[in-house]
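Internal tracking record. Fields below are filled automatically when a chain is submitted to the structure queue. Please do not edit lines marked as system-generated. If the sequence contains nonstandard residues, flag them in the REMARKS field before resubmitting.
Queue: standard
Priority: normal
Entity type: single polypeptide chain
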Amino acid sequence: MASSSPAVPESSEAPARRGRVRARRAAIMAVPATAVAAALAILTAEGALGVQFAISGMAFTVTATELNGTGFEQFGGLDQMAPGSPNEGDTGGQVLVITSAIKNATLTKLCQSVDLGGTNLLITAGGGKDKVEATDLTTDSTELSGDAAFDNIEIGNDASTLTKAGVKGPIGVFSQQADTVHIGNLRQTNYATTAGVFKLPGLKLGFSSKGC
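SYSTEM-GENERATED OUTPUT FOLLOWS
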């Protein structure tokens, strides 16, 4: 409906904000699906934290109807953004995370989405008869929810002594590990994911108005 009131000039911050959103979209669109898969195939180093790269500082959502894994570890960590990242805010570029490591994992109906400011980069896989498979999988999360069950769980280990998934955390850090893990209705807010092998049957990548 037309209005008789005079147009209100846009805030001087609006063009800059839209510019940042456009820049993020352009950066994502410039990355082909093969590069996304390659980024997820960075090997973890034994005796070190799961993530060995500077994070972007943009969180992404991961969901799956079911995750099953053998060789599970979990401990606290600190991820670092690249120096001068526009996403560092007042954090100094650091994000406190929970690192989950699984030696071998399968996921059903995997969904991953990144909010680019009104548009989401959406990746789905494993929705058919074949499940997503990963080895040496690590995720750095700020939130994790689901219906979980563990076999032979050990709680309160020093993270530097973990043995189940082949990843060791910092000395003096609280951790837990188990022979197996099952999580139904998994939902994570992640800042990084790595895997030695990541098989994504039925992979679909595109843009959507809705995330996972």
